[in-house]
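Let us begin with a simple case.
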Amino acid sequence: MLNIIWIVLLCVGILVAAFTGNIGVVTESALKAGELGVKTGIQLMGVIALWMGLMRLAQKSGIVSAIAKVFGPLLAPLFPDLKRESEAWGAIVMNLCANILGLGNAATPFGLKAMQELQKENPHPDQASRSMITFLALNTSCITLVPATIIGIRIAAGSANPTEIIGTTIFATCCAMTCAIVADWLFRRRNPV
C-alpha cells in the first residue's frame, strides 16, 4: 500500500511540475537526490564497516559470550521460556548491543540469527513463540545510546552539531522500549500459555 502512495505522490508531483512549466526543477532535484544518496551511502559504509568489524571481533574473541552471561540475568525475566544454554542468547545480546549503538544495519544479521535459533526451540513452528514476540518487540524498540548511523548521516549532510540528537534519542528510545516491555508483559498476562 505504501508503494502505491509513493507512486501516486511522485506522479502527481511530476504532472504538476509539467503543467506549471517547472519540469526542469524535477529533473534537477532528482539528479541532486541521486547524487546525495550515493555520497551518503558511501560515507555510511565506512561507519557501518567499522562497527560491524568491532562486533565481529567481539564475537570471535568471546566477548559476546561474556556479555551474554552478564546480561543473561537481566534478560532472563523477559524470556522465561528460553533455556539458559540456548544459542539464541548470544545472537539476542549482539542484536541488542548493535541497536544500542544505533547500528540497525549491523543488528539485522544478529536479529535473523536470533530468530532462527528461537524457531529451533519453538514447540509450534507454524506460529511465533512468546520468546520470538518478545525479541521482536525489543529489537524494534531498543534503546539507542549512541545513534551512530544517524550521526553519520548528519555528518554527511554537513550538520554543524551532528551529535546534538543523542539526548533526545536516548529519551525517545527509552520511552519506546519501556512501552514495548510493558505491552509484552500485559499481553503475556492476558494470554498465558
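The second case is a distinct protein. As before, the sequence precedes its C-alpha cells.
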Amino acid sequence: MPFTVRRAVRDMAAYVSGESSRDMIQLGFNESAFPPSPQAIEAARRACREIRRYNDENYTGLKRALADHHGLDEDRIICGAGSMDIMRDLAACCLEPGRSLVTGRLSYAFPGVLARAAGADVRLVEDSSFTHDIDAFIDAVTDRCAILYIANPNNPTGTLVGVDAMRHLAEALPDHVLLLIDAAYADYVTSRPAASPDALVDEGYNAAVLHTFSKVHGLAGLRTGWAYAGRHVVEAVAKVRLPSVLSAPAMAAAIASLADTAYTADVVQQTRALREKTGARLAGLGLDVTPGDGNFLMVGLPQSVAMDAETLYQRVKARGVLLRRLANFGLGRHVRITIGPPDDMAALDRVLVEVLADA
C-alpha cells in the first residue's frame, strides 16, 4: 500500500531548481566566481581530522565569530545548514493551515514551497518595474499573515530596496507578522549606501535577517548559513531545529573566511567589476539588462530578437553554458546570468555573439 502524503504536499508543485552539469560552464546557480579563502580551505581540512566526533551542536565558535565580526548580539544568532535550512525551521514555527506567507511574485520561490507544504496560503505581491513595491507588500498583510518574506537585493531581479523603505515596512507590520529579510546578496550592493538590515532586529522590530556563506565567501558546497533575529525567534527555532546539521569543517571554514577580510573584500571588488563589465557588454549585444546589486544579472530579450528565453537557453546550453530559466516566474523572455570567473564570462560572450547572430 502506498504511503500517505498530506494533501498540502500532494497538491503542491515541486520547487524548480536550475539544471546542473559538472561538464558545462555553470552560470545558473549564483555561486561565487572565486574559490574560498585559502585560509578557509585549510581550516576545513584540519577540521576533517576530527569528523569521527559530533560537532558542537550550539555552534558556539561560529556564533562568537559572527558576533565579533559584525558587532552583533551572540544570543540573537541562529546557525544552520544554509539559509534554506533556517527558512524551513521558521516555517515550522510559524506556518500552518489558516495562516499565510506574503512574498513577491518575482522573488525567491522556496519560501512559498515551505508555506504550501505547511498547508498555509501564499499571497504574491506584484512588483514595480522589477523592484519590490513596499506599499503593495503592506497592503497584502492580513490578520492571517504569519511571515512576510522579502529578498533584498532580490532574486532573480537583482534590484534593491533602500534602508528607509525597509524601515517603513518594518514599522507598518502588525506584531503577529515576522518580517523575514533575505540578505544573501547584500555584500555585492553598490547602487546606494547599504545599511545592514540587522539593525532592525537590534531596534526591536519583529524581524529575522538571513545570511549565507554560499555567495561572497564561496562556501556553497558546505551549506553554511545564519540569521539574526529577536530572542523570541531564536527560542522558537531552538525547539524545532535538527541538532548538528552544520558540520565541523563547514564551521571551521566559515570562521576562517570571516577572519580573512582582505580576501573577501577582493572577491567583492572583482565580482562588482565583472558585473558592471558584463552588464555593459550584454547591453551592447542589444539585450535588456536590469541593473542589479547581486552577483548575477537578469537579462531580457527585446521583441526585435526572434526567439524566446527557452530557445536562447537551449541554444546556449548546446554550446556548453548553463543559464537560469525564469519561466516559472512568468518571464518567458528573460534569463538570469550568474557572474562567473573571467574565463567563463568570456566564453559566454562568444556563445551569445554566435547565438544572437543566428536569431
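The chain has a mean pLDDT of 95. The CA atoms of residues 68 and 74 lie 8 Å apart.
Keep these points in mind for the review questions at the end of the chapter.
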